[in-house]
Amino acid sequence: MKQEHLNSIRAFNRFYTKLLGVLNKYYLESEFGLPEVRIIQDVYLHPDRSSKDISSELNMDKGLLSRLLKQLEQKGYICRKGTERDSRMGLINLTQKGCEIYHRLNAAANQSVEEIFAHLNDNQLQKIINSMDFIYNTMNEKETNLAVKKVAPIVIRPIEEEDNTSIACVLRASVEEHDAPKVGTFYDDPHTDMMFQTFNIKNAEYWVVECDGVILGGAGFYPTKGLPQEYAELSKFHFKPELRGKGIGKRLLQLIEQRAIKAGYTHMYIVSYHEFGNAVAMYEKCGYKHISSALDKSGLYQDAPFHMVKELQRKV
């Protein structure tokens, strides 16, 4: 790499870390530094987390992580429980106190970002977000071998009636894989076996992801009962394991959002569970904000911990 490129990258790193305030001892005017904040977020989004998983996800030194976990446990923010295989191996979860801290930190992080970028107009902000997306996607492709060509040809298309059985299997398999709730969710909903018919109504769409004739996932939007006018619910957004981590999820989400805008919606609503923490993290990155309670009256997902909303914006 040329020295001028090295200088430019390092200069930007210095600028952005200063802008975010991550070099201070305490982050977001809390009692925690950035490493503790990231640990709390990771454990909240991924219950029953092992220290090995946290270390891998955050690329954090195991010694440092061990010390920080001990401190968080002593302060009552996390707790550990033994696994079935080894009672000595503690799976890490947030306590009630820890969950309250997470929500406080999450709100402070949102406020911090809004303050940093408040002086920009919509066009400037979109350009910055596009640049961030380019950096993330480019670097992430190298880090985790996300080249889409490895699963090509990928086809994203509207659902057809003959897809009903395949997509129902994908959806229920995802719930089983993540050990997510089955009762009171789409898992035990008979409409899951009739996806084409369910979404074949006005102002609803469902799209499937297909590779070499095999259905690997899908997502849609639906005018769920009880939602405010011009709100749609992001519905049944699930993939098979072999499709995850290849950038297809974000690509499909963007498509669904633009199709919803075309159908006349201004906001997208999401309901999710702790077991789908990776998806929740993606929603947050894509601009979805947490709200305190459910908006819909569908009768499903009444115990879901995550309810999120995003104001949709048409691509320029």
From TrEMBL:
Residues 154-313 form the N-acetyltransferase domain. Transmembrane segments: none annotated. Residues 1-137 form the HTH marR-type domain. Keywords: DNA-binding, Transcription, Transcription regulation. CDD domains: NAT_SF (cd04301). This is Helix-turn-helix domain-containing GNAT family N-acetyltransferase. It comes from Bacteroides vicugnae.
